[in-house]
């Protein structure tokens, strides 16, 4: 059965709070988009599973969704279910999905619609939390996201009677400012923030951040739960994602199996002699198809080493190499993509990509689990309960 219409009146009396008041619950929010909230949830879920046999998950309000067996399901709920097999109905893990007309429909009848949405969230929470020791609740962005339809993260946390963890990029001044701003909204709803996780910090700066950001957060009454070192591979796209981003077409060795991360983009504007030092695993070479010398250098490096010398090649301006050179490429496993745009445009697109974890990113999951286990003080977190 498809998702029931969230604007449709249910036959049962409307709930304003979940009936479950036993299961412990953590609401994970962020101070901005793409701060690492989903990464934190993936790691926290695994960490909690090591301590408690029964852990549930819900993302009450989702803005990006996929179709799963006729249901509109938030992509993060789908991701977590695919990785951990949560064993609850997927539609309950994602009760509200905000489609393009959602806000307009809400504003047409806000009072009645709000009551229906709250009821739907409460019933979904009760379902995912049935006989669970802990339920992890993922928010959508910062504390105020969703205010247009009266379901901000702060309001949803209040409805579900959840304690909050805030995820924020690392630093000292800026994180404190952003956490203070978000805390004001949670405070207004009577929601307690039990800690903050600072993300994407250079490893050599962690001791300084722990000391001074910890002092600044303590002045706000927010414990510092952990500081996560930056992991470049977590934000690095694979070649298939790059091909989709630039609208490229595969010319050779379409990527299959375990994805290779693009750690660096190299524009092949120099001579073949100059490109040699840049032919390394994880490097993506961007060059016109008529730069035979550069392409031959990549082929030669691969042949000599016996392994793939680079992550791939993007041919710009839709220019293909000479047919004989294409034949040589076909004898290698170097992935090659042809794209219509110039090197500058393609490089800009690749470097500005926002890369979210996907179910097939099996190489990322162990890294995420290790980050939370090693760098987050779970005992301090659990002491709040």
Give the uncertain stretches in residue-range form: none
The residue-averaged pLDDT reads 89
Please state how the strands of the largest beta sheet are arranged side by side.
2-7-1-8-9-10
Briefly, what CATH class of the largest domain? Alpha Beta
Question: What's the shape?
Answer: globular
CATH topology of the largest domain: Rossmann fold
What is the CATH architecture annotation of the largest domain? 3-Layer(aba) Sandwich
Distance between the termini: 37 Å
The Cα radius of gyration reads 24 Å
What is the strand content?
Answer: 15-25%
Number of domains: 2
CATH homology superfamily of the largest domain: P-loop containing nucleotide triphosphate hydrolases
Secondary structure tally, helices? 15
Order of helices and strands: EHEEEEHHEHHEHEHEHEHEEHEHEHEHHH
Structural class designation: alpha/beta
Structure description:
With 385 residues, the protein is α/β, with parallel strands linked by helices. The chain has 2 domains: 24-234 and 361-383, P-loop containing nucleotide triphosphate hydrolases (Rossmann fold, 3-Layer(aba) Sandwich); 237-351, 3-Layer(aba) Sandwich (Udp-n-acetylmuramoylalanyl-d-glutamate--2,6- Diaminopimelate Ligase, Chain: A, domain 1). Helices cover 40% and strands 19% of the residues. The strands form 4 sheets. A 6-stranded parallel beta sheet has the order 2-7-1-8-9-10, sandwiched between helices. Helix 1 (37-51) crosses helix 14 (364-375) and helix 6 crosses helix 7. The longest helix is centred in the first third of the chain and has 19 residues, at 110-128. It is globular. The model has no long low-confidence stretch (mean pLDDT 89).
